[in-house]
Structure formats: C-alpha cells, structure tokens
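lol ok so funny story. i was supposed to be doing the assay writeup but got distracted and ended up predicting the structure for this chain instead. priorities right. anyway since i did it might as well share w the group, maybe its usefull for someone
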Amino acid sequence: MASVITCSAAELLPHLGSSANATATAEFICGRFNEVSEYLTQTTYAVDNTYLLFSAYLVFAMQLGFAMLCAGSVRAKNTMNIMLTNVLDAAAGGLSYYLFGFAFAFGAPSNGFIGKHFFGLKEFPSQAFDYSYFLYQWAFAIAAAGITSGSIAERTQFVAYLIYSSFLTGFVYPIVSHWFWSGDGWASASKTDGNLLFGSGAIDFAGSGVVHMVGGIAGLWGAFIEGPRIGRFDRTGRTVALRGHNASLVVLGTFLLWFGWYGFNPGSFLTILKSYDNSTRGTYYGQWSAIGRTAVTTTLAGCTAALTTLFGKRLLVGHWNVVDVCNGLLGGFAAITSGCAVVEPWAAIVCGFVAAWVLIGFNKLAVKLKYDDPLEAAQLHGGCGSWGIIFTGLFAKKEYVNQVYPGFPDRPYGLFMGGGGKLLGAQIIQILVIIGWVSVTMGPLFYLLHKFNLLRISGEDETAGMDLTRHGGFAYIYHDEDEGSSMPGFKMTRIEPTNTPTPDHHNRSVVV
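and the output, tada:
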C-alpha cells in the first residue's frame, strides 16, 4: 500500500503570508487535505480486500472443479462417495482451519516453526490481517485436502476421510505454509527479520510445494498404505485399466479448475493497488501489471503441458485421450504455481513442456511399482509440484523477484538467469522438508488408521460399490462395465429402446 500523505499547518503557513487569517486558513486546508488522504487510504484498503475476496471466491470454486474431476475419474458405483468427501473437505476443513490452522500458519509474532496467535480468529481483524485473508487461506487449505482425497478414492472408509481431512487442514498444511509464507517462517522469502535462507528464502509464490506437494505426498502415503483397488493389477501382474465413468465430468472439472487458478496464482499477490518504483517504465506499470503477467504465465504453462501430453501420449499409446490431456493441463498449472509471478512468459512454456513429461514419467513409474492412484494426484501434484519449485530456482528473473519480494536488492535469483545457485539450493531444501514433514505426520496417521481397521473398506463392499453399501443407493441409474459391481438383486442395466414401430405422423387418422 502507498504511504499516507499528510499535511502540516506549520509547513503550509509560510506560503500563505502574514495575514491575520493565515493560521486558520492553513489549518482548514490541511484538515480538508487530511480528510481526503484518509478517505483514499480507506479506499485502498477496500479495493485490495475486494480483490482478495474475489480471488478467494475463485479458489473456492476450484472445489467444484475437484468434485467434478473426481466424480468423472472414478467408476459410477462410487460417485456419491467421492462427491460427499469433496463436500466434507470444505466443511471439516473450515472448522479445523478456523480453530487451529490459521493460527498455526500466520499467528504472528511467533517462531520460525509454528504460529501461536489468532486461534478461533481471536483479536481479528488486525492491521496485518482482515477476514478476507482468512477466507483466502482457508480456500488454499481445503484444496490440499481435496488433492489427497483423489489418491485414496474408491476404497477408503468414510471416517478416515473425516480424520485425515481435519488433521491435514488443521495442522500439517498450516505448519508448511508458516515455514514458507509467514513473515516469521524459517524458509520464507518474505521473512521480516532479513535472515533469509541462503540469502533468498524459498520462493513458492502460490504453492507448488505448500499446497500441491503437501496434498500429493499425503495422498501418496494413503494410497501406498491402502494398496491398489481390487482388480487394478491381476495375479500375473498385468495392469488393468479401471477407467472413470464420465469423461464429460472430467472436462467440466478441468475447466472449472482452470478458471479457479486465476484466483489461485494472480490472487496470491493479495493486493492490487500498488505501484512499483521503476524508472524504466511509466506510471502505467504496477502490481496490476504483475498480476496480469502472472495470469499469462499460468495460462501458457497449462496450455503447453496440455498439447505436450496430447502428442506425447499419441506417440506412446497410439490414440488421443482427453482425460490424459486434462491431467497434463493440470500438471502444467501445478508446476507454474511456484514461479508464476517471477518468470517471463516464455519460461512458462518451458515449465509446461517439462511438466507434461514429468507426469508421464511418474505415471509409468507408478505402474511398474503397482501403485494405484485413481486421479494420478500424487504424480500430478507431487511430481509436477516438485518440478515447479526447481523451475523457479532456474528461471526466476531478478527484476520480478525484487518487485514481488522487495527490500533486499541483492537477493539471489534464477540460476539460468545469472543469479547463481543459492535460490535453487533453497528450492531443493523446500522439496526435501515438505516430503519429510508430510511423511512423518500423514504416514503414521494412515498407518494407525489401517491398523485399527478404519482406513479401507471390505473387499465385498469395494466390489459392490461404496454408493450402494455405504451411502444408501446409487448416484444415478447406470450400466457399469464391471459386472461384479452389483449386489445380487441390484443389478442395473441400460434401458434400451423398444421395438415398437415409430408412429406415422403424416398419415394418422383422427377419431371423433
């Protein structure tokens, strides 16, 4: 926010001469001037908070995208279950983030590991945070939980969803966001005391690591401990494709996520009404320009990844697959999320191209290791998110880094842009600590749920479908290619047209 301009009657008085009313005139002019200045300051707060609220709404709309993507990617017999888990990610995450999560993440002043203020939004709002900021960060927290739910879809007990979602949004995710986004975080690029990791801090602008890696690694452990779905790999080790039942929902969910990503990445600036001190550009250039550039880099990375996946999979498997293209698109978005604000548009194309091959490679590795993730969530968000963090350490531009993270003009920047390897070192540290932290927290949680028989449903329930056995009925009437999916007496088939001749409307007789 621009500094507040003030007027002093004592400074103005010499310019008004020595008339008897000079003092009163100076006080009147400065009083009116200060009123205008205060009004403009309030307007700036209002504009910035409105921008942040709008961005929060966009990010929250991504939950609908997750729901549609998940529903289309699972078999029809589990549609109601996966939709319900997406609703509960938002609902349970809202309460846990309100009670504990936000305080752990941004409760300043605090130490470098964990926040300790604003539990239950006590003493809120403050000069540092308003309610719009809480809403925005909550939308990020439930996005991480939504990623995890995709990895363990079609075989997880409902109570396990409630437990892991609350724990992830209330504790695991907030700690990571404190480390890399809080002004007190030990590895934050915005650390206020100037003691930056490797002189730069880890740049994860919108959360390739904080959101996507956290959700992806948590899902990796959940799916690994549960094991693959029944029928995913046969006794000979042959891979069996358990395709989702509705590609239309996958495409719808992908476009909704694409739309929401314009709140996810550009919205992470938090404010829009801010000018940049740059003598090489005119007054037309400010944070509003950086926000537009961030939207462009986000778009280019996703588009490039989608096209690379399209032609790459065509070469590898011999056909065009819309679901693969959608996943590739999302992989490009997950990768650019870290460096979207500090790279040139041309670099975003490089990011998307590599992200597509990272996703393809991790998917092949998953098959070899007999790892089953119905939505490729761990590969997509964990793998492409990791690449995005490394990409930032390679391609971050000095000018943009200094604009987005001001106050340290000698801050390291991208290795390939001439900034040395310190930023890349900080990025690698981020990857390692996120993998370590999520593994030592979510791994034991899923293991304990497994030991207490609270994680995976029975084989009979999984074969019949969770909608029928756990949720009282099917989401809609369908015919599933999986013949073993129906309970005896509940077999559902497609309704075919009858052989009744079509009426001849041109030669019909009228009976009076």
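The chain has a mean pLDDT of 88. The chain has 15 helices and no strands.
back to the writeup now i swear
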